[in-house]
Amino acid sequence: MNLSRNILQLCIAASLALTLGGCSSLASKTNTLSDDKIRSQTSAALGLQPDELTIVSRRTEGTSTYVNLKTSDGKEFTCMISGGNILTLGIASSPVCGKKGEPLRGFLGM
Fold first, then answer.
1. What backbone phi and psi angles, to 5 degrees, belong to 89?
2. What is the pLDDT of residues 69-106, one digit of tens each?
3. How many Cβ atoms are within 10 Å of 60's Cβ, its own excluded?
4. What band does 7 get if pLDDT is binned at 50, 70 and 90?
5. Range of the domain at 59
6. What burial class does residue 81 get, using C-beta atoms within 10 Å of its C-beta: 0-12 exposed, 13-18 middle, 19+ buried?
7. Is 53 exposed, middle or buried (0-12, 13-18, 19+ CB in 10 A)?
8. Under 8 Å CB-to-CB from 85, ≥6 apart: which residues?
């Protein structure tokens, strides 16, 4: 009886892991955040104009997009935007930004 229960628990855990991995892959592949949209959203968070920002690099992991930006005066920032994919119906959260090399801090100061 214990063996059957352990096998059932293992099957449930494996199914859950595969499902969550699939969701993460789906979210990454359906990201709708264009460079223009990223510049617009991050410029608002940084108190700048979109044309003052250049995207140095970006990567999407699961439902989050991480962006490295450089301002026209040479300052560098890192921002994270959650959402903007099929799993969030295209809705993206406000960016969380910080100076390059410093931890990102959200609206709760975390």
1. 55, 30
2. 999 999 999 999 988 777 677 778 889 999 999 888 76
3. 18
4. low
5. 27-99
6. buried
7. buried
8. 26, 27, 28, 30, 31, 32, 63
Please tell me whether the overall predicted TM-score, pTM, comes out greater than 0.90 for this model: no
Whichever domain contains 70, its CATH number is 3.10.450
Domain count, the chain: 1
Residue with tokens 């040479």: 74
Is there a domain that residue 18 lies in? no
Segment 87-95 long-range contacts (CB within 8 Å, at least 24 positions apart): 87/23, 87/26, 87/27, 87/30, 87/63, 88/27, 88/63, 90/32, 92/33, 92/37, 92/41, 94/41, 94/44, 94/45, 95/41, 95/42, 95/44, 95/45, 95/67
SS3 of 77, please?
A: strand
